């Protein structure tokens, strides 16, 4: 989820294709509550509390905060977020907030409770997750949603297991546990240059506060 947040942001804001290695993701996973995680044996693979995960990404939270991304020139850069917040809506209001946040902030971090039905829906053509109340529970899953269609049955599009999956609004209403907005520090640092041309940062901060109830501190903008 977090890797796709940064991959999308670098592509859409800077036109640069970055990658994130498995080792970089494992490192973040360990710092997000699984310190002894072993990807070979599966030991200490306990999932994450997304508040802890985002805290491990937060600028200034620790000396090793963030995630390593590999830039197009092969260099590795540790990237962080400046702020995160949870969308406050419920039901259809949450769906509307999800689409607004996707448009305003480039994407939404989505935590869902998957059903066994999603195993089959993911390999369908096209892959679309929808709510099937009679399907058994499978488990929690974090994904990043980077665009929406406005079509209720195939609306927010997420990346899951390297697959572009459409997600129906009824699935978000029934199966999402939380939706979060995370603002990359680099996004704010780009404010004075052309990539942010036309962005009204005070308005954006107001929108963030409206959607999440938290403050977007514009003092992190580059001078």
Tell me about this structure.
- It is built from 8 helices and 9 strands.
- Strand 6 (137-148) and strand 7 (156-160) form a beta hairpin.
- The chain has a 7-stranded mixed sheet, sandwiched between helices. It has a two-stranded antiparallel sheet with strand order 1-2.
- By secondary structure, the chain is α+β, with helices and mostly antiparallel strands.
- It has helices spanning 2-14, 22-31, 50-57, 91-105, 117-122, 169-175, 185-189, 201-212; strands spanning 67-70, 76-79, 81-86, 108-115, 128-129, 137-148, 156-160, 163-167, 176-184.
SSE layout and pairings?
Layout: H1 2-14, H2 22-31, H3 50-57, E1 67-70, E2 76-79, E3 81-86, H4 91-105, E4 108-115, H5 117-122, E5 128-129, E6 137-148, E7 156-160, E8 163-167, H6 169-175, E9 176-184, H7 185-189, H8 201-212
Parallel strand pairs: 5-8
Antiparallel strand pairs: 1-2, 3-9, 4-6, 4-9, 6-7, 7-8
Helix pairs in contact: 4-6, 4-8
């Amino acid at each position: 989820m977090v890797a796709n947040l940064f991959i999308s942001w670098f592509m859409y804001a800077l036109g640069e294709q970055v990658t994130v290695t498995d080792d970089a993701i494992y490192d973040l996973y360990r710092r997000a509550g699984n310190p002894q995680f072993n990807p070979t044996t599966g030991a200490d693979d306990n999932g994450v509390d997304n508040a802890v995960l985002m805290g491990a990404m937060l600028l200034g939270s620790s000396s090793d905060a963030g995630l390593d991304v590999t830039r197009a020139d092969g260099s590795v850069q540790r990237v962080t977020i400046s702020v995160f917040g949870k969308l406050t809506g419920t039901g259809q209001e949450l769906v509307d907030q999800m689409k607004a946040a996707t448009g305003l902030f480039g994407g939404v971090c989505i935590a869902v409770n998957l059903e066994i039905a999603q195993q089959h829906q993911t390999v369908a053509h096209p892959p679309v997750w929808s709510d099937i109340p009679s399907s058994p529970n499978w488990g929690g899953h974090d994904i990043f949603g980077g665009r929406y269609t406005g079509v209720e049955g195939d609306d927010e599009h997420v990346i899951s297991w390297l697959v572009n999956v459409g997600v129906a609004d009824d699935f978000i209403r029934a199966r999402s546990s939380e939706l979060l907005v995370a603002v990359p520090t680099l996004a704010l640092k780009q404010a004075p240059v052309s990539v942010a041309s036309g962005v009204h940062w005070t308005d954006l901060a107001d929108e963030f506060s409206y959607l999440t109830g938290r403050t977007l501190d514009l003092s992190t903008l580059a001078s």
